[in-house]
Amino acid sequence: MKHEFDKPVKFEEKEYKHIDLNLDSLTGKDMSVIKRQWAGEGNFSPVPAADMTFCEYVAAHASKMPQEFFEALPAKEYMKVTQAVSNFLLT
C-alpha cells in the first residue's frame, strides 16, 4: 500500500512525498513481535488493531521506517496512516 502525503514530509533531512506500507508481506510472527514490543512499552487495548499506537508500530514495521518518522508526521497524516493500517487489519 502506498500512502501519498498531502504535502511533502521532512524527516532527518530527507523529504518524503509518500510512504510504502508493505502490509501484505507481514506474517503472524511479525504481528506477534509487534504486539510484544507494543505491550512491553505499557500499552493495552482489547482490540490492538483499532489502537492508533499499535497501528503506528505496524506501519513502522511494514515500511521499515523508524517509529519516530510516524510520530513526527502532521496529525492529519498520522491519523490517515494509522487508520489505513487499522482498516487493513480489520477487514
What can you see in these coordinates?
The protein has 91 residues and is an alpha+beta fold. It has 4 helices and 2 strands; from the N terminus they run E-E-H-H-H-H. The chain has a two-stranded antiparallel ribbon. The mean pLDDT is 98.
Brief account:
With 91 residues, this protein is α+β, with helices and mostly antiparallel strands. The chain is built from four helices and two strands.
Task: Round the mean pLDDT to the nearest integer and report it.
Answer: 98
Report the radius of gyration as a whole number of Å.
13 Å
Number of helices: 4
Determine the strand fraction and express it as a percent band.
15-25%
**Distance between the first and last residues' Cα:** 15 Å
Unreliable stretches (pLDDT < 50, length at least 5) are: none
Helix content: 40-55%
**Structural class label:** alpha+beta
In total, the number of strands is: 2
Largest sheet: 2 strands, antiparallel
The ordered H/E elements are EEHHHH
Major sheet strand order: 1-2
**Mass-distribution shape:** globular
Task: Give short descriptive properties of this protein.
2 strands; about 90 residues; about 50% helix; 4 helices; two-stranded antiparallel ribbon; single chain; alpha+beta
Question: Layout of SSEs?
Answer:
Blueprint: E1 2-11, E2 14-20, H1 28-40, H2 52-63, H3 67-71, H4 75-90
Antiparallel strand pairs: 1-2
Helix pairs in contact: 1-2, 2-4
